[in-house]
């Protein structure tokens, strides 16, 4: 996807577990002429992850390995090997529903980003939208952050706030937050990679 005249792009692997809409946003943003990265692998811990078929259709190499029946360390090691074999310099977690081992997180520290559907440090973990609504917050939102061994606790690189309307449900909020996610993730990844060069 890089054109001959563009500066070298960073090779990134995207890890997913499901739908992969953020992966799609990242993939299509990489098709823009000024993108700072190429997607060299889409990897999943669920062979049925919907996003894998999309990546394949777009000609991106994929890797799938169910975590079931494997130790966390062995599964992380296999994902790590797949990323390295693809020549990835960076890992981008996009709806990857796995808690990482400390070793894996340390191995990629500074070179691994995650997107989380809340205004961190509020609501790390699951059920973020429901928790924001129940707390009476005026806004939910999305954060892109560096990944460290502690869950959802690495440095926040950027956020977008999303208004919580009267009668909002977790599903309706999640749907709108996803629009914001798709704007935010490619932009932050591009900016971060350029800053690291
Ligand atoms: C997104 O809401 C993301 O913030 C969270 O998991 C969801 C993934 O959605 N980490 P998708 O698979 O990218 O559609």
Structure, described:
The chain is of the alpha/beta class and 197 residues long. Helix content is 36%, strand content 22%. The protein has a seven-stranded mixed beta sheet with strand order 3-2-1-4-5-6-7, with helices on both faces. The longest helix is centred in the C-terminal third of the chain and has 27 residues. The chain is globular and about 50 Å long. The structure holds 5-O-phosphono-beta-D-ribofuranosylamine. The site of 5-O-phosphono-beta-D-ribofuranosylamine has 12 residues, from helix 1 and strand 5.
What's the short version?
The chain has about 200 residues and is α/β, with parallel strands linked by helices. The chain is built from 6 helices and 7 strands.
Number of E-type strands: 7
Secondary-structure element order, N to C? EHEHEHEHEHEEH
Tell the overall outline. globular
Spatial extent as radius of gyration: 16 Å
Largest beta-sheet characterization: 7 strands, mixed
Portion of residues in beta strands equals: 15-25%
What hetero molecules are bound to the protein chains? 5-O-phosphono-beta-D-ribofuranosylamine
Ends apart, CA distance between termini: 20 Å
Helix content: 25-40%
**Helix count, per DSSP?**
6
Segments where pLDDT lies below 50 for 5+ residues?
Answer: none
Strand order of the largest sheet: 3-2-1-4-5-6-7
Give the integer mean of the pLDDT values: 96
Going by helix content, strand content and strand pairing, the class is alpha/beta
């Amino acid at each position: 996807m890089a054109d001959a005249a563009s500066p070298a792009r960073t090779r990134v692997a995207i890890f997913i577990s499901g739908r992969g809409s953020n992966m799609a946003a990242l993939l299509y943003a990489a098709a823009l002429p000024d993108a700072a990265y190429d997607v060299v692998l889409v990897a999943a811990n669920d062979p049925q992850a919907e996003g894998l078929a999309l990546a394949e259709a777009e000609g991106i190499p994929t890797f799938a390995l169910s975590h079931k029946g494997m130790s966390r360390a062995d599964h992380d090691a296999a994902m790590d090997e797949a990323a390295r074999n693809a020549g990835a310099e960076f890992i981008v977690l996009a709806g990857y529903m796995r808690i990482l081992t400390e070793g894996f997180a340390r191995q990629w520290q500074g070179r691994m980003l995650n997107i989380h559907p809340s205004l961190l440090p509020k609501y790390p973990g699951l059920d973020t939208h429901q928790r924001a609504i129940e707390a009476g917050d005026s806004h939910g939102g999305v954060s892109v952050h560096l990944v460290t061994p502690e869950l959802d606790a690495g440095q926040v690189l950027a956020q977008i706030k999303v208004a919580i309307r009267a009668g909002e449900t977790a599903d309706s909020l999640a749907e709108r937050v996803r629009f914001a996610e798709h704007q935010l993730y490619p932009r932050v990844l591009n900016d971060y990679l350029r800053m690291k060069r």
